[in-house]
Design a protein that fits this description.
308 residues, alpha/beta, Arc Repressor Mutant, subunit A, Rossmann fold, 2 domains, 9-stranded mixed β-sheet, two-stranded antiparallel sheet, 11 helices, 18% strand
Length: 308
């Protein structure tokens, strides 16, 4: 998955905000641009600071995008641990379950103000609460899915979104045979109705699962309806206003990346087989001189003996 970033030089169309074409950044790069994570209003003084908490504990933080992605993974792992009755977890246990090294995990959790307790670890419930606050999961984000083909059907019928704070509230397509047909309990609306329906239902996240030729038009309609974030499955780079966040999922690109790793491992294996019969560097046989025992070589110098 990649994040579109950057800004296009030319201004947008008259009467419309400037657009930007974001460059494609890998989300797992630790030197990726930082994301401003706003404080989430909590019970207390109404300004994002709970009563009794220090302001610095919940103030807006600059967190690397790679760390944000990992926080979401930690939350999934911690939620599973909580369901199994775990109350504490060590950094080693959590890092192993999340597939990262413990030093990186501790650095990520330090953005939350969590440093754990020596000999005890982290409280699972506290970490879950902190990560949910940082990721903005203390409230629901309504989702619209555009393009009710095979992928759109799967997304609309997936029951895991509502439980994680992402209820699917609207479905759109162009196919007249689909208009009005319920999918996942929701009737499909026409794409022309995207701006109105999204505005009326308070949709904040739009998912584009259309062919690439329709993606930009769909994106424009989502933005017109007040959608703030877009998850794009179409293999195109969208042009969006500067305030819109876009995440791009290109399955073909992901498969090509995996293909690279498969090919590299095959090349490494072939290279290892090709050199397995060669003598060790520095050995008498490799040097082509000497008698193979300590002493003077034919040139009168000392032979190098390689010991493991």
């Amino acid at each position: 998955m990649v994040t579109q970033r950057g800004r296009r030089d030319e201004a947008g169309s008259p009467g419309r905000p400037p657009r930007r074409t974001r460059r494609q950044d890998t989300p797992d790069a630790d030197n990726a641009p930082t994301a401003e994570i706003p404080a989430v209003p909590a019970e207390g003084n109404g300004r994002g600071v709970p009563n009794g908490d220090a302001p610095e504990a919940v103030r807006a933080k600059s967190i690397p995008e790679a760390a944000v992605a990992r926080l979401a993974v930690y939350l999934r792992v911690l939620s599973g641990m909580s369901e199994q009755g775990a109350t504490t977890v060590s950094s080693e246990e959590l890092s192993q379950a999340a597939g990262v090294n413990s030093a990186k995990l501790r650095k990520d959790l330090s953005y939350l103000g969590s440093y754990g307790t020596r000999g005890v670890g982290y409280e699972v419930s506290v970490l879950v609460s902190q990560i949910e606050r940082i990721l903005g999961l203390t409230r629901q984000h309504k989702v619209a899915v555009v393009g009710i083909g095979n992928l759109g059907h799967a997304l609309a019928n997936y029951g895991g979104f509502p439980g994680r704070g992402f209820p699917v509230e609207a479905l759109f397509d162009l196919d007249p045979d689909l208009i009005g047909v319920p999918v996942g309990g929701l009737p499909v609306s026409h794409m022309d109705d995207i701006p109105r329906v999204c505005a009326e239902r308070g949709i904040s996240i739009g998912v584009i699962a259309t062919p690439p030729t329709a993606a930009q038009s769909v994106c424009d309609r989502l933005v017109a309806g007040g959608v703030q974030c877009i998850l794009n499955f179409a293999p195109v780079v969208l042009q969006v206003p500067a305030h819109i966040e876009v995440r791009k999922v290109d399955l073909a690109v992901e498969l090509q990346i995996l293909s690279f790793h498969v090919a590299r491992r095959a090349d490494d294996a072939a290279g290892n087989q090709g050199t397995s019969g060669l003598p060790a560097v520095g050995s008498p046989a490799e040097n082509g001189k000497g008698s193979g025992r300590n002493g003077s070589g034919p040139d009168g110098g000392r032979e190098m003996v390689v010991r493991s």
